[in-house]
Write a sequence for this structure.
């Protein structure tokens, strides 16, 4: 066992390491569990769930772009009931308290989406009694649904309001997931903090468009989609850095992380933890490579505690 | 069981207009792959993040050799076409459900391929015409059925015809171990027209259809099967990101509420790519 501490604190919740999965790229882990042991993750962040099933957008829903991809899935999900029984049930069975890591088990962060305030409230209320949901991540930043999603996340007053409404009823710590498709993300971060958010996730995807010139048509049926992957990493690092300076609550940094170095950039910019998203499509085991790489970095630089790196760049 | 396997290129040759045949040493995947399943092929250029789903054309379990036949459709498949003997390429597979071989027992069967939908029909033809008849070894479910089914292997054997539709240039035709009927769009070989034109021109009939090809062909076959009361299995294609069922990119519309998302969307990579024609909207 290494003597280098990998565990971090996220708004009062201890994570065995700072690496988690990004919502929407990992399902609830079921499909990835045949490639690696989910217990190695700091946390599993589940795909967005709404109070009732959502159909999502027409296909094609994705296309590749240089070092990235656009998606417009439209938050297709089975709704709370099936999710709670099947997906949380699976995670309950699969994730075991890890005795080898000071008893810190892999945490479950449930991502919640809604078309309206009522829908968010309904889902968060139902989640209150779900013991396997350790934290909630509220998606107010999906660029691919017409109502709700990003509409809540681009106006500071709206962000503060929806955050405070959810905070009043949530039994778990609340992480607000922010959109980068705004003029000043620090202002949005401050609004979420003012509304009582316990932490921030950032960034969601950047709205983009691709045109298939051979067919003279939009590559996606939805016309626009969210850009993710290594192409957006520098944007994400910049925004995490800006917001870490602007708020006191912890930030989960995400956006294009593929290597341990990418994750370390996020930590140094001020993120308390990181999420692996699109890179899991390229290599199912990316999260493990990142965890091992961070540990190797601590050893190589003789750093006793990963937390020393958080925000170490002034 | 899905495997992540770094495969060695044994051969990469052009066999048609923009169509390439890639033979790979991929022991685990070749041993597990069933006809109609596919593999995710990852580009060596890491700027191309997403795997390309390519159907299994041949899987030689004993030799550990997987054959993929694909058309250049963009930069990723262009890269694959330039692979050389000794190069390596990352694969994940086998993925998806594959064709239900057991449905062919003692039946008159059409294997219908259109264009780049032809390659998966080759491994299917090989399995259905193997000495054990329909339900060749390798598919535990089919093997069980074969044992419980009455009659000798010869009686269980399927009567297999491959009906192949080409634009013009033919490929893989000589590899098929069964009767073949050809349609070409330009009439340069076989029946001029579509695979359905070829079926009618030759007065053919079947009890079960397995098909892969462009959507208009699949749509026409769904209609044909409906009119003739034929059981029809269609292999679908859709843009994929994860290839393993997590991202929900590659859905197709289903006639009934799907189990995974409780809407009318089935995942092509997981519930498919092979669907009964009556369970999907086309």
């Amino acid at each position: 066992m290494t003597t280098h501490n990998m565990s971090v604190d996220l708004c009062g919740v201890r994570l065995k390491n700072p690496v988690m999965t990004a919502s929407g790229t990992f399902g609830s882990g079921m499909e990835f569990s045949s490639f690696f042991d989910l217990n190695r993750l700091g946390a599993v962040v589940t795909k967005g769930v709404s109070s009732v099933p959502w159909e999502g957008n027409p296909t094609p829903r994705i296309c590749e772009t240089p070092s990235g991809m656009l998606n417009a899935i439209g938050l297709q999900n089975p709704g709370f009931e099936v999710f709670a029984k099947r997906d949380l049930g699976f995670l309950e069975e699969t994730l075991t308290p890890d005795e080898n890591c000071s008893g810190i088990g892999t945490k479950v962060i449930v991502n919640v989406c809604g078309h309206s305030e009522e829908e968010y409230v309904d889902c968060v209320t139902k989640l209150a009694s779900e013991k396997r949901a350790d934290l909630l991540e509220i998606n107010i930043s999906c660029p691919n649904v017409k109502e709700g999603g990003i509409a809540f996340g681009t106006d500071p007053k709206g962000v503060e309001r929806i955050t405070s409404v959810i905070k009043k009823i949530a039994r778990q710590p609340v992480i607000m997931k922010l959109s980068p498709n705004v003029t000043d993300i620090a202002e949005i971060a401050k609004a979420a903090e003012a509304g009582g958010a316990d932490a921030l996730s950032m960034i969601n995807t950047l709205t983009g468009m691709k045109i298939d010139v051979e067919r003279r048509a939009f590559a996606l049926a939805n016309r626009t989609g969210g850009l993710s992957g290594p192409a957006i990493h520098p944007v994400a690092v910049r925004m995490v850095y800006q917001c870490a300076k602007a708020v006191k609550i912890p930030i989960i940094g995400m956006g294009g992380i593929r290597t341990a170095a990418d994750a370390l950039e996020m930590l140094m910019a001020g993120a308390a933890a990181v999420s692996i998203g699109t890179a899991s499509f390229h290599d199912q085991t990316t999260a493990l490579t990142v965890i091992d790489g961070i540990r190797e970095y601590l050893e190589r630089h003789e750093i006793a505690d990963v937390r020393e790196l958080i925000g170490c760049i002034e | 069981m899905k495997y992540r396997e770094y495969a060695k290129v044994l051969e990469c040759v052009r066999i048609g207009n923009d169509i390439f045949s890639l033979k790979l040493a991929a022991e685990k995947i070749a041993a597990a792959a069933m006809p109609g399943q596919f593999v995710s092929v990852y580009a060596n250029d890491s700027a191309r993040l997403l795997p390309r789903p390519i159907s299994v054309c041949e899987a030689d379990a004993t030799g550990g050799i997987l054959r993929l036949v694909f058309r250049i459709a963009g930069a990723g498949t262009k890269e694959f076409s330039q692979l050389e003997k000794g190069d390596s390429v990352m694969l994940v597979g086998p993925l998806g459900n594959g064709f239900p071989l057991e449905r062919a027992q003692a039946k008159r069967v059409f294997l219908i391929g259109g264009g780049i939908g032809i390659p998966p029909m080759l491994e299917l033809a090989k399995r259905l015409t193997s000495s054990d008849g329909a339900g060749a070894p390798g598919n535990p479910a089919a093997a069980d059925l074969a044992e419980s089914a009455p009659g000798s292997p010869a009686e269980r054997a399927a009567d297999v015809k491959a009906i192949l539709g080409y634009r013009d240039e033919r490929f893989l035709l000589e590899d098929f171990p069964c009767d073949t009927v050809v349609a070409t769009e330009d009439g340069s070989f076989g029946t001029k027209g579509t695979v359905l034109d070829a079926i009618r021109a030759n007065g053919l009939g079947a009890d079960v259809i397995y098909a892969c090809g462009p959507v208009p062909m699949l749509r026409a076959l769904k209609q044909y099967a409906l009119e003739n009361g034929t059981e029809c299995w269609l292999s679908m294609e859709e843009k994929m990101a994860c290839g393993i069922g997590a991202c929900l990119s590659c859905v197709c519309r289903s006639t009934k509420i799907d189990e995974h998302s409780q809407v009318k969307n089935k995942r092509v990579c997981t519930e498919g790519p092979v669907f009964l024609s009556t369970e999907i909207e086309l």
